[in-house]
UniProtKB/TrEMBL annotation:
Residues 30-124 form the HTH arsR-type domain. Keywords: DNA-binding, Transcription, Transcription regulation. This is Winged helix-turn-helix transcriptional regulator. It comes from Waterburya agarophytonicola KI4. It comes from the Bacteria. Gene3D superfamilies: Winged helix-like DNA-binding domain superfamily/Winged helix DNA-binding domain. One of its GO terms (molecular function) is DNA-binding transcription factor activity.
Amino acid sequence: MSAAKSQKLPTCSTSHSVDIKTGSINPEALTLNKAQRMAEFFRLLGDPNRLRILSLLAKEDLCVCDLATLLEMSESAVSHQLRTLRSLRLVSYQKQGRKVFYSLLDRHVLELYQSVAEHLDEEQ
């Protein structure tokens, strides 16, 4: 497929915002690869128990036993969800003696959680 055919340009006659410097429209869609990775990320994040874990870790670092108690889940089930969250690089852990404490990995995770929570609060 030629380059001209692979990049489809808008063909409508509606007036659009333009880049002041170049005078042209420069839409940038996600690449298919990035869109697929993002979809997988949101699919894995779409589990209610994982979101409940994130909601607690957004407030403070907690160990598996505390998370299990607060969420009324087994420690095994919490550990399973934490493994998935670790694989997404959403949480990190630190060993302190025999206990392992989990925390949100970085500010992006906290900002994402807070943005979605605020958005949902606005709907009510």
